[in-house]
């Protein structure tokens, strides 16, 4: 008999984290539009040259607002993690991240926390591609960039059923947030993608929330040419680490063998074919030589495709937030406590 999913109590303590860097033109409007379902608002001044933190203190009277300052600029990821730590210290149960530039409608906050409240997810994120009729409002460069990044993120994170990985409108169960390896998560623009990889190592459930982004007069600090190399390297690194963690370190399965032998067969077939081509000096290859090169490649590709199907079906489905201890240190139980 299946038990009902674990749920939080009816009135969770919800905290909104707003990383602030050159957003003084919009941040007060964002704060004013955050609904009553939120009890705490953390504005993180990430060494902002415009003094975003002091600006909020001087002009905002909302009693929910706390201003946290980073002594030096850490980037969007570093600012969010500073906000997470502050929110966890005040007993928040759900942490929502909203940018301060006005692109993310604060009125959608309830949609993001509902799946976590209902025990259906550990982490929710926005998806601006869900309604195709709304995609036309997105600048072309962002549309193409997100499409490419989404595919790379699917492979590196293991969440094959989500899209728009760089979307920064997110919510996370506090217990899951407490178990994140903050010292190893990227602090700059790779933050959202790297966080998905870290969530997969925890086997957290991630779902998309349809939304529409608004593009007005805000100025983006993102430069594609500056971060492209970092994104490519980060995704390749996380992809390799995820395969090693999930299929060789934590567990060994038929998929592990398919991946290992598939790679060996493809590499062997390509290597043998290249070797024969080099030493024959233009002479036509025999049918046997062609088969000895082609057959391992064909078999190897079949194994790799079978592994890919297995990997796509291994996306986490059972939320872990309610099963994790509130204190990460409590996972370290000595032998006496186990008895």
UniProtKB/TrEMBL annotation:
State the source organism's domain of life: Bacteria
Q: Which regions span the lipid bilayer?
A: 259-279, 285-310
Organism from which the protein derives: Luteimonas yindakuii
Q: Which residues form the Glycosyltransferase 2-like domain?
A: 16-176
Q: Name one Pfam family in it.
A: Glycos_transf_2
The record's listing under CDD domains reads: DPM_DPG-synthase_like
Listed A to Z, the keywords are: Membrane, Transferase, Transmembrane, Transmembrane helix
Look up keyword Amino-acid biosynthesis and say if it applies. no
Stated name of the protein: Glycosyltransferase family 2 protein
Q: Which PANTHER family match?
A: RFBJ PROTEIN, UNDECAPRENYL-PHOSPHATE 4-DEOXY-4-FORMAMIDO-L-ARABINOSE TRANSFERASE-RELATED
């Amino acid at each position: 008999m299946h038990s009902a999913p674990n749920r939080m109590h009816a009135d969770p303590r919800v905290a909104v984290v707003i990383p602030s860097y050159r957003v003084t033109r919009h941040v007060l409007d964002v704060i004013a539009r955050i609904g009553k379902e939120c009890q705490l608002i953390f504005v993180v001044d990430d060494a902002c040259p415009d003094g975003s933190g002091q600006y909020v203190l001087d002009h905002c009277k909302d009693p929910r607002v706390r201003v946290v300052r980073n002594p030096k600029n850490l980037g969007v990821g570093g600012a969010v993690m500073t906000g997470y730590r502050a929110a966890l210290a005040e007993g928040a149960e759900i942490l929502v991240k909203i940018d301060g530039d006005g692109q993310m409608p604060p009125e959608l906050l309830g949609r993001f926390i509902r799946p976590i409240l209902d025990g259906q997810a550990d982490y929710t994120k926005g998806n601006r591609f869900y309604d195709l009729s709304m995609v036309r409002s997105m600048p072309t460069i962002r549309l193409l960039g997100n499409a490419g990044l989404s595919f790379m993120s699917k492979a590196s994170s293991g969440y094959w059923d989500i899209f728009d990985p760089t979307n920064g409108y997110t919510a996370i169960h506090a217990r899951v947030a407490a178990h994140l390896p903050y010292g190893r998560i990227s602090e700059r623009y790779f933050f959202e993608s790297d966080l998905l990889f870290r969530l997969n190592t925890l086997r957290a459930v991630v779902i998309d929330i349809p939304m529409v982004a608004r593009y007005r007069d805000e100025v983006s600090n993102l430069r594609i040419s500056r971060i492209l190399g970092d994104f490519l390297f980060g995704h390749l690194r996380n992809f390799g680490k995820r395969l090693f963690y999930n299929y060789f370190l934590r567990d060994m399965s038929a998929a592990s063998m398919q991946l290992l032998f598939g790679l060996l067969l493809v590499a062997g077939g390509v290597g043998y074919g290249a070797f024969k081509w080099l030493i024959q000096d233009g002479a036509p290859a025999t049918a046997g030589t062609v088969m000895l090169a082609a057959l391992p490649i064909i078999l190897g590709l079949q194994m790799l495709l079978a592994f890919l199907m297995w990997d796509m079906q291994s996306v986490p489905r059972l939320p872990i937030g309610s099963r994790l201890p509130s204190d990460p240190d409590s996972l370290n139980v000595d032998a006496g406590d186990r008895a």
